[in-house]
Automatic annotation (TrEMBL):
Biological processes per GO annotation: tetrahydrofolate metabolic process
Cross-referenced Gene3D superfamilies: D-Amino Acid Oxidase, subunit A, domain 2, FAD/NAD(P)-binding domain
Subcellular localization, as worded in the UniProt entry: Cytoplasm
InterPro entries: FAD-dep_OxRdtase, FAD/NAD-bd_sf, Rhodanese-like_dom, SoxB
Protein name per its UniProtKB record: Sarcosine oxidase subunit beta
Flavoprotein is among the record's keywords: yes
Requisite cofactors: FMN; FAD
Catalytic activity: sarcosine + O2 + H2O = formaldehyde + glycine + H2O2; sarcosine + (6S)-5,6,7,8-tetrahydrofolate + O2 = (6R)-5,10-methylene-5,6,7,8-tetrahydrofolate + glycine + H2O2
Family that this chain belongs to: Belongs to the SoxB family.
Domain Rhodanese: from-to ranges: 34-78
Gene Ontology CC, one term: cytoplasm
EC identifiers of the protein: 1.5.3.24
Lineage summary: Bacteria, Pseudomonadati, Pseudomonadota, Alphaproteobacteria, Rhodobacterales
Xref: PANTHER family: FAD-DEPENDENT OXIDOREDUCTASE DOMAIN-CONTAINING PROTEIN 1, SARCOSINE DEHYDROGENASE-RELATED
């Protein structure tokens, strides 16, 4: 069933009786060509591109809960490609281009909104750093614009310009950045993959791998053994736990990140803004809630909820930047488990086990990467070689010392 404006009007006039379930609920087959573990954005996108670009039909996505229940449905929905380093910037720009065509590609309204993002500048040194980053973006075909304080004030007059400990001196804008409705991304990719014949198997936990003579033959699950020619792992915050079942120890730690939503307000924030003197980022959802977040909780955890000290820290960041936020009531908050890598950049690679592939280490920037991650992981699974834009995302960079340390923090996962 194709969605269209005509279809919406027809259904509205006929009592909405023609809508069908958006994906099937199949029982697992005994064997697939490719099994993807993890029904988050990255796993589902991988299934979509495997089917659509590489023609694979005999594939399955195995999800231990329900699709969209992980980080893909928990993030603050920001997409952008404002990176500095060579390994990252072309990849994230590729992703942003895929976002721009996503809704047509999967025939699903994911509310892709290029409302723009501004990283605020609070010191001369920060202006230098952001100028450099903006130049790197432009050199890689992305858009970037350096703003002075007056230009920022025109768009966001209510920010604390005058009375602040760290006055706003300008901003680095990326007009093509913005937000995308996060869970709709999971649903859109799931619907598309299902339409190509991929099985999306929910409530099925992978509990182990069957590995013989160095080759992965399939996965043990709560619904029994499922054989596979190849197995791709895309479980984000559960990466360490899952790959441990295959005897691998990853350069990744799991940490909690919280997100917050205020009560609905009249339109006040035209785009996304990030505070450069603390860690705080905010946008306004189409329903009116201010959606914001800040730092990790800072300790290793697999719990999908955080603690009060970080709530306080994030709210202080909000108050320092836009004191009027203190008048809004907090409606809800939650946490997600982040797969924090040692250098803050991801991994899309084969493992030493034949037929076992890995995608993870997305830290708290993996939502914006969803389309490119799925595309590149599908390429790796289908062709057994890295996609040209993801050649840097290999395990061996930790052995050879070729870190992609965007923040320059060193091997300290909770600081990236
Ligand atoms: C609060 C918060 C805010 C964020 N904000 C942003 C942002 O603004 N912009 C941005 O770019 N990124 C953001 N992120 C990061 C982004 O959400 C993640 O990097 C990205 O979603 C991870 O990929 P995924 O969607 O595939 O993960 P998930 O949706 O977590 O998918 C992994 C899936 O694997 C499943 N799984 C785990 N173990 C097993 C198993 N043994 N068997 C079967 N299934 C299993 C899980 O149930 C889960 O559904 C944020 C994250 C959080 C938590």
């Amino acid at each position: 069933m194709r969605y269209s404006g005509f279809k919406v009007i027809k259904e509205a006039l006929t009592g909405h009786k023609g809508w069908k379930p958006v994906w099937r609920d199949p029982e697992p087959k005994p064997h697939y060509d490719i099994v993807i573990i993890g029904g988050g954005g990255h796993g589902l996108a991988t299934a979509h591109y495997l089917a659509k670009i590489y023609g694979h039909r005999n594939i399955a996505v195995i999800e231990k809960g329900w699709i969209g229940g992980g980080n893909v449905g928990r993030n603050t929905t920001i997409v952008r490609s404002n990176y500095l380093l060579d390994g990252n910037e072309p990849f994230y720009e590729f992703s942003l281009k895929l976002w721009e065509g996503l809704e047509q590609d999967v025939n699903y309204n994911a509310m892709v909104s290029q409302r723009g993002i501004i990283n605020l500048i609070h010191s001369d040194a920060q202006r230098d750093a952001f100028t450099r980053r903006g130049n790197a973006m432009i050199l890689n075909g992305a858009d970037a614009e350096l703003l002075d304080a007056e230009q920022v004030r025109k768009e966001y007059p209510f920010l604390n310009f005058n009375d602040a400990r760290f006055p706003i001196k300008g901003g680095l804008a990326q007009r093509r950045g913005g937000t995308v409705r996060h869970d709709a991304v999971a649903w859109g990719y799931a619907r598309s993959a299902d339409g190509f014949g991929a099985d999306i198997i929910q409530n099925c936990e992978v509990t182990g791998f069957r590995i013989e003579d160095g080759k992965c033959l399939g996965v043990e699950t709560s619904k029994g053994f499922i054989g596979a020619g190849k197995v791709g792992c895309a479980v984000a915050g559960n990466s360490g736990r899952l790959m441990g079942m295959a005897g691998m120890r990853l350069p990744i730690e799991s940490h909690v990140l919280q997100a917050f939503v205020s009560e609905g307000l009249k339109p006040v924030l035209p785009g996304v803004i990030t505070f450069g003197a603390g860690h705080f980022y905010v946008s306004q959802s189409d329903k009116g809630g201010l959606v914001f977040g800040g730092d990790l909780d800072g300790y290793n955890s697999y719990a999908q909820r955080g603690n009060l000290p970080v709530v306080e820290d994030v709210c202080e960041g909000g108050m320092a930047l836009m004191p009027m936020i203190g008048r809004a009531r907090l409606l809800r908050m939650w946490g997600g488990i982040m797969d924090m890598s040692m250098d803050g950049s991801p991994i899309i690679d084969r493992t030493d086990i034949d037929g076992l592939y890995f995608n993870g280490g997305w830290c708290y920037g993996g939502f914006k990467a969803t389309p490119a991650s799925g595309h590149c992981f599908a390429h790796l699974l289908a062709r057994d070689e890295p996609h040209p834009t993801a050649t840097a995302y290999r395990f061996d960079r930790f052995r050879t010392g070729r870190m992609i340390d965007e923040k320059g923090m060193g091997n300290q996962p909770n600081l990236h």
